């Protein structure tokens, strides 16, 4: 009888569109109250696909097992790729047709058991990286080097569209942590160390992924997921999932803005930080997971845990004496809605017992289930039972398209429509950090090129983790369906005679005979590309005790650079997810390019830059420390940090060279002096130290303060056309809480400027661009002198405050 009741409600959803907010609420409440307690808890549960896959199969579900689970619990969500860990039965990665067949089985089994439609999620973090032939962009850190909002929006749009074409409406991206810990194995997944860049590029990704409209909408084809809330990237040790120490002032100033921007952009879901802040595991924290996210930030989207993180309150964080206590703490103390359990039924079993024993109220369960149902409603999933082909859910329509030719045509459209976008993104991320005597681009006289180093002919190393498999691809051959182009391939395509010598392994010591072979190849070549870095990794398997480049690669680099004639014709290329310490060698290379993890098309982008087809325009999105003892000191450091060690940076945040003679020509302000409110009224009593104006901060923080015109010019004598990213920094001379040396408050990218052309960029700075969290833990602005800097140009600005 209960199954019939649920089906009746699902049919109702298929034929009725609720327009008024209270009608939508009634719809959700009706279906919520039709569910048994057990099925409600099932909606809060997410399991891994491998739980129900047939033995040895990547595409077939054990329907007896699946239907038994669904009949008992009505599990609300499933996740992951069957080949996430390793190939299964000679299948490296599923294509669209295989994915549709798999997802269709999930829906058919759920429908057969009278369960609500399932919500499937996938880690599409730099494209639909678990779908064969999909478009893989540079990883987020390399995307940040472009300082390109439209590029981030395109990446989100393409990742969502291609994941959706497989029948999957939920992507676990973007990553919004601030990348300040150089050793952290997920640094490359962030948009770098600047809060404003993470806010802008992260929100752009979300808008692209969720249909191109900023703000919350009633309907979605795809739901994005902001992760990981909050402070995950600030691991004190640099190891994954280890404690962060973050004072509240720092949390609000630096770590919250990117998530606040995501919420303003309308992000549908969020994922919880796996670690702890100040000794408090976030998965059990009322402070962070109810007071902050629900009350202060007013977020009403669905929040899911990360992998096994409720269980880890017991055996990893040691705050819960038992697994059952872990469930009680997480659900009872926070507003978490869904547990990525993900490989057993412990979570729903314990949670059911806790409700029946009176430790968790059913109202608390209803709170989360309602958010799950609202998300499913927005995605059209609750209309499944009428007719899959006419469903309001695009993901269901795709899943039930069983025509193999349709899937092949969809996949071929990736190549023609989307791959060029990823190539362009990789080109915009090329960051030239050193170019002595204009060694690059290489001259027309160069015919023979030696590509040396473990990263010179390896697309898997270019792509990093979350590429085909969780820990990345195992070989370049896996990337052939993804259009992979290694550095060697890119040069060969341009007609050069290319000699490839690995010279050293990516890890461990080098064989002296291999190093000597590399030296001989370099000596004989007209030009040398020396590509070093890291193998793919993510999360805990990527933990390392030192940022030093591996011993074998260090020996290789210094052996080649001992010879000044080789050093003078060598470009050192860094293919890495974090800033590895470079060895001290006798001679510098003539040029150095940071690529980060540019994705499968990185070799094409690098070859285009080295040969002068494009002028590099990337800018470093992190601080590259000069010494290992100086890592993890971001550019927004305090003056005392700089005084204590004047040579912190080997390469600075925002650094990047061009072949063109291009740069900022002038910085002009709309007014040299402006009076603003020091702070705004709140529900709490005003402090004696703040002059206040009317209106809430959230209503007034975007009040316009001053316009800044930045003119970028490409010299008439320049030999190259180039794009240029203008970065506008703000620095306050004195304030009651020690000021940063500077903070990025605006950026934009010009079009392609020909020699002699210029472009004016106008930035509108707002109240919040001058604000900080004061001693009373309130956002405020203090009167004083400010310096606004872009490139080598600056302007002075005086701010006064009024009540």
Short description:
By secondary structure, the chain is of the alpha/beta class. Helix content is 32%, strand content 18%.
Summarize the SSE layout with pairings.
Elements: H1 2-15, H2 21-34, H3 37-43, E1 45-48, H4 63-73, E2 77-79, H5 96-112, E3 119-122, H6 140-144, H7 149-164, E4 170-171, H8 195-209, E5 225-229, H9 248-255, H10 257-264, E6 269-272, E7 276-277, E8 280-281, H11 286-296, E9 302-304, H12 312-315, H13 323-333, E10 339-340, H14 346-356, H15 362-378, H16 394-399, H17 404-429, E11 431-435, E12 448-452, H18 459-463, H19 487-493, E13 497-501, H20 512-524, E14 527-533, H21 551-561, H22 564-567, E15 570-575, E16 591-596, H23 602-610, E17 624-625, H24 639-644, E18 649-651, E19 662-669, E20 673-677, E21 679-680, E22 692-693, H25 697-700, E23 704-714, E24 725-732, E25 743-749, E26 758-766, E27 772-773, E28 779-780, E29 784-790, E30 793-802
């Amino acid at each position: 009888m209960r199954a019939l009741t649920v089906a009746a409600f699902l049919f109702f959803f298929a034929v009725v569109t609720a327009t008024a907010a209270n009608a939508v609420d009634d719809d959700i409440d009706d279906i919520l109250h039709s569910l048994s307690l057990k099925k409600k808890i099932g909606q809060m549960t997410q399991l891994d696909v491998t739980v129900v896959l047939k033995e040895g199969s990547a595409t077939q579900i054990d329907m007896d097992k699946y239907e038994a689970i669904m009949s008992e619990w009505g599990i609300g969500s499933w996740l992951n790729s069957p080949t996430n860990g390793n190939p299964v039965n000679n299948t490296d990665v599923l294509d669209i047709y295989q994915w549709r067949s798999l997802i269709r089985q999930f829906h058919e089994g759920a429908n057969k058991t009278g369960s609500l439609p399932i919500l499937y999620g996938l880690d599409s973090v730099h494209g639909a990286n678990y779908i064969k032939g999909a478009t893989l962009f540079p990883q987020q850190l390399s995307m940040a080097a472009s300082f390109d909002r439209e590029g981030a929006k395109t990446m989100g749009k393409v990742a969502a569209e291609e994941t959706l074409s497989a029948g999957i409406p939920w992507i676990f991206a973007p990553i919004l942590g601030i990348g300040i810990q150089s050793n952290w194995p997920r640094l490359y997944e962030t948009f770098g160390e600047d809060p404003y860049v993470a806010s802008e590029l992260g929100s752009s990704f979300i808008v692209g992924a969720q249909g191109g409209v900023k703000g919350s909408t009633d309907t979605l084809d795809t739901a994005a997921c902001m992760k990981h809330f909050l402070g995950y990237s600030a691991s004190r040790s640099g190891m994954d999932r280890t404690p962060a120490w973050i004072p509240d002032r720092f949390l609000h100033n630096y770590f919250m803005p990117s998530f606040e921007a995501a919420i303003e952009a309308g992000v549908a879901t969020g994922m919880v930080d796996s670690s702890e802040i100040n000794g408090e595991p976030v998965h059990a924290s009322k402070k962070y997971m109810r007071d902050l996210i629900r009350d202060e930030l007013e977020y009403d989207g669905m929040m899911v845990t990360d992998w096994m993180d409720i269980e880890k309150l017991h055996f990893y964080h040691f705050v819960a004496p038992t697994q059952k206590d872990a469930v009680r703490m997480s659900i009872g103390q926070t507003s978490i809605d869904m547990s990525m359990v993900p490989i057993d039924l412990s979570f729903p079993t314990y949670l059911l017992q806790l409700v029946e024993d009176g430790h968790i109220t059913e109202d608390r369960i209803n709170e989360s289930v309602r958010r799950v149902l609202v998300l499913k409603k927005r995605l059209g999933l609750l209309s499944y039972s009428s007719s899959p082909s006419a469903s309001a859910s695009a993901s269901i329509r795709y899943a039930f398209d069983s025509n193999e030719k349709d899937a092949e045509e969809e996949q071929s459209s990736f190549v023609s429509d989307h791959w060029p976008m990823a190539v362009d993104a990789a080109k915009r991320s090329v960051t030239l950090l050193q170019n002595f005597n204009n060694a690059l681009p290489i001259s027309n006289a160069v015919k023979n090129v030696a590509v040396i180093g473990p990263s010179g002919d390896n697309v898997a190393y270019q792509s990093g983790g979350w590429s085909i498999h969780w820990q990345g691809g195992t070989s370049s051959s896996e990337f052939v369906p993804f259009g992979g182009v290694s550095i060697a391939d890119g040069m060969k395509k341009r007609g050069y005679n290319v000699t490839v010598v690995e010279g050293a392994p990516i890890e461990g010591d080098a064989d002296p005979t291999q190093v000597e072979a590399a030296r001989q190849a370099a000596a004989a070549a007209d030009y040398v590309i020396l590509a070093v870095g890291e193998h793919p990794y993510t999360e805990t398997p990527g933990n390392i005790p030192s940022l030093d480049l591996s011993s074998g690669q260090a020996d290789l680099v210094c052996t080649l650079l001992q010879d000044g004639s080789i050093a003078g014709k060598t470009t050192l290329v860094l293919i890495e997810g974090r800033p590895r310490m470079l060895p001290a060698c006798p001679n510098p290379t003539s040029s150095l390019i940071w690529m980060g993890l540019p994705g499968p098309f990185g070799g094409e982008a690098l070859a285009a830059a080295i040969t002068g087809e494009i002028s590099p325009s990337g800018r470093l999105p992190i601080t590259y420390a000069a010494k290992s003892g100086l890592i993890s000191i971001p550019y927004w450091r305090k003056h005392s940090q700089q005084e204590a060690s004047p040579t912190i940076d080997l390469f600075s945040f925002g650094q990047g060279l061009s072949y063109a003679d291009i740069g900022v020509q002038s910085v002009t302000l709309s007014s040299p002096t402006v009076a603003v409110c020091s702070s705004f009224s709140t529900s709490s009593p005003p402090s004696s130290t703040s002059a206040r104006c009317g209106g809430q901060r959230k209503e007034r923080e975007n009040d316009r303060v001053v316009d800044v015109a930045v003119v970028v010019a490409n010299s008439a004598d320049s030999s190259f056309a180039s794009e240029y990213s203008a970065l506008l920094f703000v620095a306050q001379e004195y304030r009651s809480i020690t000021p940063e040396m500077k903070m990025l408050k605006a950026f934009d990218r010009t079009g392609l400027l020909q020699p002699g052309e210029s472009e004016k960029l106008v930035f509108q700075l707002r109240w919040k661009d001058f604000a900080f969290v004061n001693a009373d833990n309130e956002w405020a602005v203090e009167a004083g002198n400010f310096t606004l800097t872009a490139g080598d140009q600056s302007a002075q600005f005086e701010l006064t405050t009024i009540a």
